[in-house]
């Protein structure tokens, strides 16, 4: 009968701990390198884009007809940003940056960054429609 001593038990435990740490490290590297699906122009020719980011559908484009819409500093309707087909309230600043209902005090240079930051902060929660 083979006897198991303390040194053998510690060696197996150390090997198991190293293996578990390696798996966690590989998982974290895989998560860090996950890239969102590239944005695709919509076929309507408006330059609108749709993408999937962290499992959420983001669409950016011309504002929908009807309903309450803010205007840009130049008097044009602010573009529509939708997360999972729910409008995200977006306002254009005079300097060309944007703020949203999710990030009212943080400006973004482009709508894609604004929408992705909103998805990050929602962290899986549904976006509540502003009106209706």
The level of helicity is 25-40%
User: How many DSSP H or I helices?
Assistant: 2
Radius of gyration: 24 Å
Shape: rod-shaped
Main sheet record: 5 strands, antiparallel
Order of helices and strands: HEEEEEEEH
Q: Approximately how much beta-strand content do the residues carry?
A: 15-25%
* Helix/sheet category: alpha+beta
Briefly characterize the structure.
This protein is of the alpha+beta class.
SSE order and pairing:
Blueprint: H1 6-32, E1 40-41, E2 49-53, E3 56-61, E4 80-83, E5 86-88, E6 90-92, E7 98-100, H2 111-122
Antiparallel strand pairs: 1-2, 2-3, 3-4, 4-5, 6-7
Task: Write structural notes for this entry.
- By secondary structure, the protein is α+β, with helices and mostly antiparallel strands.
- It has helices spanning 6-32, 111-122, and strands at 40-41, 49-53, 56-61, 80-83, 86-88, 90-92, 98-100.
- Strands 1-2-3-4-5 form a 5-stranded antiparallel beta sheet, covered by helices on one side. A two-stranded antiparallel ribbon has the order 6-7.
- A hairpin with a 7-residue loop joins strand 1 (40-41) and strand 2.
- The radius of gyration is 24 Å and the shape is rod-shaped.
- The N and C termini lie far apart (76 Å).
Main attributes?
132 residues, alpha+beta, 5-stranded antiparallel sheet, single chain, rod-shaped
